[in-house]
Write a structure and sequence with these properties.
heterodimer, A: alpha+beta, Heat Shock Protein 90, 5-stranded antiparallel beta sheet, rod-shaped, B: Rossmann fold, Arc Repressor Mutant, subunit A, 5-stranded parallel beta sheet, 4-stranded antiparallel beta sheet, about 20% strand
C-alpha cells in the first residue's frame, strides 16, 4: 500500500503537486482553527473571571455585619440575574472563624434559592482571590471566586472573618466558545475547500502546456509535422527549442548518412564497371586459360553490385523509417514514376493508367523510400505486362493501400513466396536479385507495412503494398 | 551514327569509346560537364551516353541545359546511384533511358540501338528498304538475304540513311554523323562512300537530290 502510494507520487507530477499543496492547506487550516479557538477561549475565560471579580468587589463593599455579628449587605447587588432563581449567577457568604466550624451559607443570593454552595475548605489570605470549580444547583459545574474578609469593628466587639463567594455557570463561558468554534470551523472548511479547488485548478492549468507538448510530440511521431509547433510558456519554450534542435540534427545526420552511402556506392560502382568491362572485353578475344578468370570476375562484380544496392537501400530505409516527421504525398511520386516508366518502356507501348484517387493521400515516410518501393513494383509490372498496367490507391484508416496490376503471365503461388523471401536472409541468398521485390518487402516491413502478391483481375500479377498513412 | 560519351573516369571512358567504336559508331568523348555540355550543344549526335556524377557541372544540369536550348538527341544516362529518385530526376531532366553501373557493354549497345531507332521512329531492330535489310543488332546489311561486305564508314553512311529513310540528307549532315569531332573531315569522301555503296546496292536505292543531298528510298 505504502509502496503504491510512493510510486504513484514519484510517477505523477500532478499527484505530487496536489499532495504537497493539500498537505499544507490542511496543516495550516488546522493550526489556524486550533489557535483561533484557543485564543477566543482564553479571552472568554479572562472576561468570565473579571466579571466574577467585579461581583466579588461589590459584595465586599456592601458587606456589613449587623449587631449580632451576622453578615448583611448595605445595598443588594444591582445585577437582576443574581435575584432570578438558578439563573447561573450566584453569591454566598460563609463565616469562617478560627475557633468555630465553618458556617456555610449565612447569606446567599436569591438566585441560589435554597441551595447552599459546597465549597472546599480554603482560607485565602488577605486580598487574595482563589478560584475553584464546584458543583452548583441542578448539578451544573460552576466557576467560582472567593476571598476572605475580616471585620474588626463589630458591635459586639468580636472580630469576625467571612468568606465571600461568587460563582457563575461555566456553560455561560463554554457556550460562546462552542458557538464561536462551530462558526470558525465552518468558515475554515469553506476556505479549505476553496483552496483545494484553487490548487486543483492551478495544477491542471499549470500542467496543461505539458499535455500540449505531449500532443505536439505525438504529431511529430505520426509524421504530421517535422518539428514541434505552437506557443508554449516561457518555462517550457527552451525545452521545445532543444527538442526541435535535436529533431533537426537528427534529420541532418540521416541526410548526411544517405549522401555518404550514395557517394560510397558511386565510388565503388565506377571501378566495378571498369573491371566488368575489362573482363568482358578480355573474354571476347581471350585465350582459354583466362576465360575462367574473366567469368569469375564478371560473376563477382555482379554479386558485389547487388550487395551494394541491397545494403544501401536497407541502410537508407533503416535510417529514414525511424525519422519522425517525414511525410510524402503519394500523387506526385506516382506521377513522376509513371513519366519515367513511359519513357524507359517506350518500346513496349504499354497502356499505363493511374486510377483517379484522392490527392490527399499521404505516406508517413521518406519520399525516396516510397519512390524505391513503387519504382521497383511499377518497373516489374511494366517488364512483365503485355499491354496494360494500372495503379490504384486508397486509404483505410491509418493505412495506405497501393495496388498495381498488370496483364502479364503472373506468378504461381509458390513462386510469389520465393520471389519475396529472397531478400530476407541476405547471407544465404543473393540479395536484391530477381524482381527487386525483396527490397520492396524489406522497406515495407521497416515502415511496418507489407507487400502482398496475388492474382490480378487483368490476368497477371497484382502487387498490393500497404504502408502507414498520415494526414 | 555518331555518339558522345561524357564520363569522367578515364578507364571507363576508354572502354566505352572502344566498345562503341567496335560497334561502328563514331565516338566523341568528354571528361567533365563543361566540355560535355559544349560538345552536345554545338555538334550533332545521334545519341549521348551521359554519366551523372561529373566534375565541374553534374550530368543532370548538363542535360537540362541541352533540353532548354532545344537539343533533342536521345540521351542515355549512366548512374552509380541506383535509387528510383535519381532515375525519375534524370528522366524529368530529359533523359530517354538510364543504365546503372556496373553494366555490360552489350546492354549499353542494345539500349543505344533502341534509343536511336526510337528517335528515328522505328519500332524494330531490323530496318528495311525494299530488298535491303539492316540489322542494327549485328551491324549487318543484307540485300535479298545476301550479306553485304561493308567498311566501317560505309556502314555508318548506310545506317544513317536507313534511320532516316525517305528523308533528304545533306552532305554536311552525313559528315556530322559519320565522323568523330577530331577527325579530319572532307565532304568529298562522302561522295566516295556513296559511290561505293551504290555499287554494292541494287540500282536506284540511293537518289541524289540535286543541290540538297541524298535520299534512301524504295525505287
Amino acid at each position: 500500500m505504502k509502496n503504491t502510494v510512493t510510486s504513484a507520487l514519484r510517477n505523477s507530477l500532478r499527484l505530487r503537486l496536489l499532495a504537497g499543496t493539500l498537505f499544507w492547506i490542511a496543516a495550516s487550516i488546522i493550526a489556524a482553527g486550533w489557535g483561533l479557538s484557543s485564543l477566543f477561549q482564553r479571552h472568554v475565560e479572562v472576561q468570565f473571571h473579571a466579571e466574577l471579580k467585579t461581583y466579588l468587589d461589590q459584595l465586599t463593599a456592601q458587606l456589613a455585619p449587623d449587631s449580632k455579628g451576622q453578615p448583611t449587605l448595605n445595598l443588594p447587588l444591582s445585577d437582576p440575574r443574581l435575584s432570578r432563581p438558578y439563573s447561573g449567577y450566584y453569591w454566598q457568604i460563609d463565616e469562617i472563624n478560627d475557633d468555630a466550624p465553618v458556617s456555610s451559607g449565612l447569606l446567599r443570593s436569591r438566585s441560589l434559592w435554597d441551595h447552599v454552595l459546597a465549597v472546599p475548605p480554603d482560607t485565602p489570605a488577605d486580598g487574595e482571590i482563589h478560584q475553584h470549580r464546584i458543583v452548583g444547583p441542578e448539578g451544573k459545574m460552576l466557576g467560582m471566586g472567593e476571598r476572605s474578609v475580616r471585620i474588626d469593628d463589630v458591635p459586639d466587639g468580636k472580630p469576625r472573618s467571612f468568606r465571600l463567594i461568587v460563582a457563575a455557570d461555566e456553560s455561560l463561558m463554554s457556550e460562546p466558545v462552542a458557538r464561536f468554534s462551530g462558526a470558525l470551523w465552518v468558515a475554515l472548511g469553506v476556505l479549505g475547500i476553496g483552496l483545494v479547488f484553487a490548487a486543483l485548478m492551478q495544477v491542471f492549468v499549470g500542467l496543461a502546456p505539458l499535455r500540449k507538448l505531449h500532443a505536439a510530440l505525438g504529431k511529430v511521431r505520426s509524421g504530421e509535422t517535422p518539428r514541434l509547433n505552437g506557443d508554449f510558456p516561457a518555462e517550457i519554450m527552451p525545452l521545445v527549442e532543444e527538442l526541435n534542435t535535436v529533431l533537426a540534427q537528427n534529420a541532418e545526420v540521416v541526410e548526411r548518412a544517405r549522401t555518404q552511402a550514395g557517394n560510397l556506392a558511386h565510388a565503388l560502382k565506377t571501378p566495378l564497371s571498369v573491371l566488368a568491362n575489362a573482363a568482358d572485353a578480355a573474354s571476347k578475344h581471350a585465350c582459354r586459360e583466362h576465360s575462367e578468370l574473366t567469368r569469375l570476375v564478371l560473376e563477382q562484380v555482379t554479386t558485389a553490385r547487388r550487395q551494394v544496392d541491397y545494403h544501401l537501400a536497407r541502410a537508407q530505409a533503416a535510417a529514414s523509417s525511424r525519422m519522425p516527421g517525414a511525410r510524402t504525398s503519394l500523387r506526385p511520386v506516382i506521377d513522376g514514376l509513371l513519366r519515367t516508366m513511359r519513357r524507359i518502356h517506350a518500346d513496349r507501348q504499354l497502356d499505363l493508367t493511374c486510377r483517379r484517387f484522392s490527392e490527399a493521400l499521404v505516406f508517413r515516410g521518406e519520399a525516396q523510400d516510397l519512390q524505391e518501393m513503387l519504382g521497383n513494383l511499377l518497373d516489374n509490372a511494366c517488364k512483365w505486362a503485355s499491354h496494360q498496367v494500372t495503379v490504384d490507391a486508397e486509404r483505410n484508416r491509418n493505412e495506405l493501400c497501393i495496388i498495381i496490376d498488370d496483364d502479364g503471365v503472373g506468378l504461381l503461388a509458390e513462386q510469389r513466396d520465393a520471389v519475396i523471401r529472397r531478400g530476407i536472409r541476405a547471407d544465404e541468398q543473393v540479395p536484391g536479385s530477381g524482381l527487386g521485390l525483396a527490397i520492396v518487402e524489406d522497406l515495407a516491413r521497416l515502415y511496418g507495412g507489407r507487400l502482398e502478391l496475388m492474382d490480378s483481375p487483368l490476368g497477371g500479377l497484382r502487387s498490393s503494398l500497404t504502408l502507414p498513412a498520415t494526414n | 551514327m555518331r555518339i558522345l560519351i561524357v564520363e569522367d573516369e578515364p578507364t571507363l571512358q576508354a572502354q566505352l569509346a572502344e566498345g562503341l567504336g567496335a560497334a561502328s559508331y563514331a565516338v566523341d568523348t568528354a571528361g567533365n560537364g563543361v566540355d560535355g555540355h559544349y560538345l552536345g550543344a554545338t555538334e550533332s549526335y545521334d545519341a549521348v551516353v551521359l554519366d551523372l556524377g561529373l566534375p565541374q557541372v553534374d550530368g543532370i544540369t548538363v542535360l537540362r541545359k541541352w533540353r532548354a536550348s532545344g537539343r533533342t538527341m536521345p540521351v542515355l544516362i549512366l548512374t552509380a546511384r541506383d535509387g528510383w529518385h535519381e532515375k525519375v530526376a534524370g528522366i524529368d531532366a530529359g533523359a530517354d533511358d538510364y543504365l546503372t553501373k556496373p553494366f555490360h557493354m552489350e546492354e549499353l549497345l542494345a539500349r543505344l540501338r533502341a534509343l536511336i531507332r526510337r528517335a528515328g521512329g522505328h519500332a524494330s531492330a531490323e530496318l528495311n528498304c525494299g530488298p535491303l535489310t539492316l540489322d542494327t543488332r549485328s551491324n549487318r546489311a543484307t540485300v535479298n538475304g545476301q550479306a553485304m561486305t561493308l567498311t566501317s564508314h560505309e556502314y555508318r553512311v548506310l545506317a544513317y540513311l536507313m534511320h532516316h529513310r525517305d528523308e533528304v540528307i545533306s552532305r554536311s549532315d552525313l559528315v556530322e554523323h559519320i565522323y568523330a569531332q577530331d577527325f579530319d573531315r572532307d565532304s568529298n569522301t562522302v561522295e566516295v562512300f556513296i559511290a561505293r555503296l551504290r555499287k554494292k546496292l541494287p540500282p536506284g536505292l540511293i537518289e541524289t537530290v540535286r543541290g540538297l543531298g541524298y535520299r534512301l528510298t524504295t525505287p
